[in-house]
Design a protein that fits this description.
Immunoglobulin-like; 8 strands; 3-stranded antiparallel β-sheet; single chain; elongated; mainly beta
């Protein structure tokens, strides 16, 4: 069987809850797997490049599946750690000062 998945890059490798992680699947030639004859999915969602977010702390298992046009299938898993406090979003309100 031919191998198609070279490696899976996760940036950053550890995220906080709510923080996006960039996940990209590379081929054995160290180039992104974006060939039209190959279908790539990460956790069942099509695409070799995805931004993922998780709401809570824990280790997440990412399953990458590659399907070729001639029916070959390759699976590989990667683990992403979600640690720490959730991201907080600061809200700014516009202060309106009325003339006296």
């Amino acid at each position: 069987m031919t191998s198609f998945i070279g490696h899976i890059v996760m940036e950053p490798s550890t995220v906080h809850p709510g923080e996006p992680a960039r996940v990209e699947v590379y081929g054995v030639d160290n180039n992104p797997l974006n060939d039209s004859s190959i279908q790539v999915s990460i956790n069942g969602i099509p695409g070799s490049l995805q931004y993922l977010q998780f709401p809570s702390v824990g280790q997440r298992k990412l399953t990458v599946i590659v399907r070729t046009s001639n029916g070959e299938i390759e699976r590989q898993t990667a683990l992403l750690n979600v640690e720490g406090s959730p991201l907080t979003i600061l809200r700014y309100e516009k202060l309106v000062i009325s003339p006296c």
